[in-house]
């Protein structure tokens, strides 16, 4: 509710200032608070577009459709506007595509004088299954409140009404659950005010581009556009906030599409300003009620990817001023590496994994020892690149030798020269993640990289990527290793699979073998428009010679 | 929701103006619209009182308690403020009395950073049963939306929150139905902003007054106070609007208690301004989204009681100006009588009952032929009294002879000289309503009145009053007939019954033999604070010699 939100911000301010101070009390960077202010000054004004529903749909069982449900158009939207919602009682409308924003409608009397309040339940769904899957009893591992269903009591009608909670959806289910026998009314003038900070129109792909690539690009752009709000959100349905890993991939895609570099700048400043009292960038921050960090959210791979994001931002914009101002933050993240790399050049995985969250992928049982070794080397390389662009490599002169040492250690301890594959853990686990990150870290020659990637794809027991986020790095590793056909095939197979299943936006999790997979134990709470899935936009547009033919 | 309401008023204005014009287009009274404006100018500023819950209660089965449920205090309210609402999950708090207004609360973090929205369901109850009776599946005869339960999603916390729907309740149930395992929080600073237009403090009853009378008076005052909002409402939970019959009894009680005569004046002007295009006062009108009448709501006994209300207002205030201005309305209501009284002086009951709603009481099978005959004569008497106070009796000089004719017809056609009782219908139905209204109409001598009332109370098959509203007229008839002991006994037995069952305010319907009776097929939707039940305040304070000893 709007009033609610306003009150929250007003009343939340004090309590939140305490919350912030607990994170940045003796702020590590003397400019910390100023950076948050700078970030707030960069808050984009969102572009608004009024969308009208295209049709009334029925959601019907179809074993071939995604999650077994298909939306079938049964009538034009106008047919809703002429009839009694009391008689209709329940209806689902289709916006025609995925949008993020605010729903409004009118209620008009057909006969009688409204002598009582009426009650609706609205349900907003990104995919058809969300409209027909019972939410109760709820057994998901995260908050029930993420689900986009809500009761509304309307005390007086006729009138115009607006739902103040921002929703992300394509389909809207309207259930009338309370009305009076003494008057009749209809619902009409349904509108959805879509918002985004993606304002430019990316250039068309050449007509010669294969249809499937065109589709993947189009849906990828849609996904990115929906996630671009007042920050790079991970997903407009959930979690609706800034995570470093999502920002990294979104900002890469943004460079080759919407080019809203100001948004990247805002996010970089906000993350810097809300870093913890040791100067480490936290995995995620919140914009409301007041900008604040998730206390103690130390996510090692994300902290290190902050540096890569800053480097890419500088490379794309040549905005030296920002990069210079935030350089101390990038430099400070290297302390994470120094803390956990032993003299032998190997990451102390047990300790790192015990003291920080290592994410990498939604993949049960994934051993991240090789992944973090490779990612740290990648971060060192990126940070050194950044330093060179800023002419401050002297400030981190120890980095090149550290890189050498860590590469040697990786090869010596984790590389199987027979199979040409990286292994880790007592069970010598072989995963796509380990190979990808070691190659991202430049640990292998091109030839050896090609062998590792080819072999892992042939390997029966190798742990495959759990979702789109890890697929990005695997494809990046293939591209880096000049395995263009394989890169295109993996991208086309994985994202093309979502296209074939009717995706309007790309999903948080996708397993071609299991439509109902969920990291939260309840698939309707998954995000079906998720930032880290927009990455084909980056590949297709950065490497036309690979992906556009 | 507040925003919703504002939008409704804003956007509803247009559509409502149409609605009004359809009722008062060629307004019968040239001042009709001006009267509505005058009523709006008289809208009272409500007195606000901040109430804090007194305790945490459990609602437990108790076959001796009203409707089988009793609220037992189990802990002081402060004990709620120290603990996790996530662990508690569900709690019921007690405001200590019935209040009408707005609920607000704070949410504060205990540990972690709120990483998700939370969802509550709040349920507001006037009586304990409303908190523990399942509302689904709902089979009531009126809108489900009247029930005071509601889901709320809170997107950001900590903060302060306010529920913008006005509630009428003593008990508030808080159910947490969505939260995150990654942070904990508590609910505190619960407040209820109580509102009323009853501002004066009525004078204390003498210490010598019997306890039960003191209790009935106290609860009656509470009931009246709660129903006095920006109009005389029928009930603050339901229907939250102005009905003529309720207004009549409330304004009578108001004269002897809160003395807010401006409120009566506002209601008289609003009803006059919103009367239909034949000048008939409608049974009920609405304040929002814009003042308007319930189209075609012709309620004959209520239209006629408008005149009695205006007369009582003048008698209490000597406000000749208002009475003069509204006199044409009173005069016009007499046309209803002339339309339905045949040459023989008898009301054409079939036609009247077919063309208008005759209410009188919630009582199945009640034949209202004698009732309407008596009520019309009563209305004629009251209107003639009003005319005399205004020195305009010449304008209705035909009234006295009409009264005579109608009395004669009543005695000739409906009075059983053997039994001394009025009968009506083919089955010679005998009811309290028939006797009461004939006596209100002054049809019988005092002696005959006493006989009729004594006999009806002895009569086994006589239809008794169905609820408080009819009990008022029956008691008034007893008082009128100098049957003081009986009047006091009936009042003490009936309202005392509610007192003994723990009423905080008097109820819309009360049947000593059936706690679960409901005119709507579902007792939780009954109003448990209902205007027409406040009438003991009037009897006790107007007739101290009868009721205060």
From TrEMBL, chains A, B:
**Where in this chain does the record put each Glycosyl hydrolase family 78 alpha-rhamnosidase N-terminal domain?**
53-194
Q: Which Gene3D superfamilies match?
A: 1.50.10.10
Gene Ontology annotations of biological process type: carbohydrate metabolic process
Boundaries of each Alpha-L-rhamnosidase six-hairpin glycosidase domain copy?
Answer: 211-541
Q: Name the UniProt key words of this record, in alphabetical order.
A: Signal
Q: Which InterPro entries match?
A: 6-hairpin_glycosidase_sf, 6hp_glycosidase-like_sf, Bac_rhamnosid6H, Glyco_hydro_78_N
Q: Does the keyword Signal apply?
A: yes
Residues annotated as signal peptide: 1-25
The record's SUPFAM superfamilies line, in alphabetical order, gives:
Six-hairpin glycosidases
Q: Which Pfam families match?
A: Bac_rhamnosid6H, Glyco_hydro_78_N
- What PANTHER family does the record point to? ALPHA-L-RHAMNOSIDASE C-TERMINAL DOMAIN-CONTAINING PROTEIN, C, PUTATIVE (AFU_ORTHOLOGUE AFUA_3G02880)-RELATED
Protein name stated in the entry: Glycoside hydrolase
Organism of origin is Plebeiibacterium sediminum
């Amino acid at each position: 509710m709007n009033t609610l939100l306003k009150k929250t911000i007003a009343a939340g301010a004090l309590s939140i200032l305490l919350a912030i101070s607990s994170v940045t009390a003796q702020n590590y960077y003397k400019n910390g608070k100023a950076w948050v202010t700078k970030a707030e000054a960069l808050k984009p004004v969102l572009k608004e577009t009024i969308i009208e529903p295209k049709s009334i749909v029925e959601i019907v069982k179809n074993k071939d459709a995604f999650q077994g449900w298909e939306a079938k158009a049964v009538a034009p939207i106008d047919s809703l506007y002429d009839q009694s919602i009391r008689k209709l009682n329940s209806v689902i409308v289709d916006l025609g595509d995925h949008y993020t924003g605010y729903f409004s409608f009118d209620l008009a009397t057909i006969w009688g004088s409204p002598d009582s309040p009426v009650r609706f339940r609205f349900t907003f769904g990104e995919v058809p299954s969300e409209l027909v899957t019972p939410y109760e009893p709820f057994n998901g591992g995260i908050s029930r409140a993420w689900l986009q269903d809500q009761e509304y009591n309307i005390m007086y009608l006729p009138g115009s009404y607006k739902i103040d909670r921002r929703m992300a959806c394509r389909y809207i289910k309207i259930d009338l659950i309370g009305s009076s026998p003494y008057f009749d009314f209809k619902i009409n003038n349904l509108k959805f005010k879509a918002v985004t900070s993606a304002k430019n129109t990316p250039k068309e792909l050449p007509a010669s581009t294969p249809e499937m690539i065109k589709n993947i690009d189009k849906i990828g752009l849609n996904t990115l556009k929906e996630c671009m709000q007042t920050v790079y959100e991970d997903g407009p349905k959930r979690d609706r906030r800034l995570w470093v890993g999502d920002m990294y991939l979104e900002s890469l895609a943004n460079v080759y599409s919407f080019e809203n570099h100001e948004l990247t700048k805002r996010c970089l400043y906000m993350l810097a300003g809300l870093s913890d009292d040791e100067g480490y960038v936290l995995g995620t921050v919140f914009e409301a009620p007041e900008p604040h960090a998730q206390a103690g959210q130390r996510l090692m791979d994300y902290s290190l990817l902050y540096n890569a994001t800053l480097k890419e931002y500088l490379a794309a914009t040549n905005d030296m001023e920002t990069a210079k101002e935030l350089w101390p933050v990038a430099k400070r993240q290297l302390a994470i590496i120094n803390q956990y790399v032993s003299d032998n050049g190997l990451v102390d995985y047990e300790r790192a994994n015990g003291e920080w969250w290592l994410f990498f992928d939604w993949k049960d049982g994934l051993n991240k020892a090789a992944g973090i070794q490779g990612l740290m080397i990648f971060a060192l390389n990126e940070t050194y690149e950044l330093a060179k662009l800023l002419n401050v490599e002297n400030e981190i002169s120890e980095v090149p030798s550290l890189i050498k040492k860590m590469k040697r250690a990786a090869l010596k301890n984790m590389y199987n020269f027979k199979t040409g594959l990286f292994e880790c853990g007592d069970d010598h686990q072989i995963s796509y993640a380990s190979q990808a990150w070691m190659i991202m870290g430049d640990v292998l020659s091109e030839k050896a990289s090609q062998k590792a990637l080819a072999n892992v794809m042939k390997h029966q027991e190798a742990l495959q990527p759990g979702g789109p986020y890890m697929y990005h790095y695997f494809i990046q590793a293939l591209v880096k290793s000049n395995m263009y056909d394989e890169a295109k095939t993996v991208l086309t197979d994985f994202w093309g699979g979502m296209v074939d299943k009717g995706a309007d936006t790309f999903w948080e999790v996708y397993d071609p073998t299991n439509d109902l997979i969920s990291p939260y134990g309840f698939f309707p709470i998954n995000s079906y428009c998720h930032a880290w899935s927009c990455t084909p936009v980056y590949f297709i547009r950065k490497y036309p010679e690979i992906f556009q033919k």
